Amino acid sequence: MAIETMKKVRMAAHKSVEDEILAKLQKIGCCQIIPGDGAHTEERDIAGARARARHIDEILAETRFVMRFLEPWATEKGGGLSKSLGDIPSLSASELSELASEEEFTAASKKVRTLEKRLSEARSGLSRTSGLIASLAPLAELPYSLDFFTKGTESVRGNIFQVPSSSFGGFVSSIESSVGGDAEIFAAPGEEKDSGGIVAVIYARASAEKFQSAIADFQVSRVDVPAGMTGLPRDEMKRLEAEYAALKSEEADVTSEIVGEANPVYKLCEYSSDYWGVERDRTEAIINGEQTEQVVVTSFWIPSNRVRQFEKILAPYGELTDVTISDPEEGDSPPTLLANKKFASPVEPLIDMYGSPAYGGFDPTAVVAPFFYAFFGICFGDAGYGLLIASLLIGLLMKKKVTGTLRKFLMILIIGNVCALVFGALTFSWFGDSISAFPFLKFLMPLRKLQILDPMGDPMTMLGVSLVFGFVQIIFGLLIAFRENLRKGDKVAAYADQGGWIVFLCGLVLTGLSSGGMIPLPTGFGAAAAGAGALILVATQGRSKKSVLGKLFSGVMSLYNVTSYLGDLLSYSRLLALGLGSAAVGMVINMLAGLVAPSLHGFGVLIGILIFVLGHVFSMAVNLLGAFVHPLRLQYVEFFSKFYEASGEEFAPLSISTQYVNIQDEK
Fold it and tell me: 204 forms bridges with which residues in the sheet?
């Protein structure tokens, strides 16, 4: 339960060694760069770094393009889950630099660009040709050259129309009666009743007005003949079909080339992406420093326990560097780095999800961990589920090199499932009521001796346990706030705001328990405590008001906040609800499997096993999600609201962040 103390470092280094020093600091990942304001940097002094940053961005943009293009064909992709599980190659920095050859990548990128252009042109041509063939299909039997309908001749012109079936005959008759011998008509009715048909008309230009009058009253659509089409439609279609076949062959050839290049080029892009990503981060760190013609001044935060390691790295550079290390000054905002013991450290990502504590503030990780693990175990609530999942995850961690945040989340699940194993044993829930439901498991009945709670048979006791957990956590949150106010020197807030509520709430609970005969304590004791707490609240909660009546009114009205605490307390009943849900679903699955097994002429056993396995897998998946989300909500809403302020900045050091390879020490 601690936040690492930070030191502020101001390092001046000669430009000849700045990049080398930052590379070593990046490797150990202990320094968060403080961006400079650039007030003392001339543009000419930083031009080289900016140019390098632009060059790196261009390379990274090109790697993203190539990877996106090759992704459908690449079958040996890394990253993502593979990185999290450690199934990626380990390379030294020099090996990665060699594999991420800029010259080789540039050549590969140019080739991919060429292939992409050829493929795009082939597919565009296929789309265009396919559309032209489809547009000519209705005109296949037209006995006229298409140049009559594109440009016509000096004396005649032509038009083609798509005519609805309902007016097809009338449309042809109107043209014949109006234009007569000055027109040639080709009519092709649609094969289906409502499909309409094609009417092609070649008419004398002198009869254009008559022709327009003949078709004016009909709802028809003009069919445009593509430019460049001059021959008979059937001849043009043959030409287009041959062109389509050639384009299809080109597409197949290009695709074959891409498939051959995909895996090696994609792997090259992975190496390049990681290498240049690391270079970009380091270059940005240089840009963020103050620069002169010869020197770069970089400021950063470093944890106190890493200062000696930093000084050891700088030792070989002697007179080429000058370093000042100091404590944070007034007005500084150091980042927050959580440092907890093994039991609590897995919960740190959950704290970061909500927001980091302020530097020098209270780290809630160690107090959240036991509550979260216990609540997870109650909500999941099945010993069989807990034992199975914990075993699988422990095996995964032993087999795979899982690191970082994923490892912490897996550790949360392991500890939570161990708690579920314990709670399930105390409630005699092993894959639901499997031990009681299936006779062949009767040999496990001695496990019933561990049972001390029966959520299904006695839910009120389980509800009481849930509310006790809730009350303890709420009071614990108030005690933390009480302690923090004392630490800050605000005794009035500590005793008035938290102290008053602690006495008042505890008094109310003691009154209820003693009046119900659950504890051997006089009823008046709890009432007196509640009264004392109420007096403290009435006397102090209006202290910011100016008038006496305002102070009194605000103090009395503050007691209404007891409903908020009651609501928070009742929220912990979700521990009962999820625990009952897990047990009930398990019982239903076992009942269905037991009903099916003796039936269906011998197949019932197989179907019963299938129902049991699939049902409990589904139950584990659903309840695992609920067992994670709902306890987390209790921490964020009911617990943190009593004391926690997430106003800090998470420590984000300059580090080697790769996706496709692990960087290891030089051999």
Answer: 156
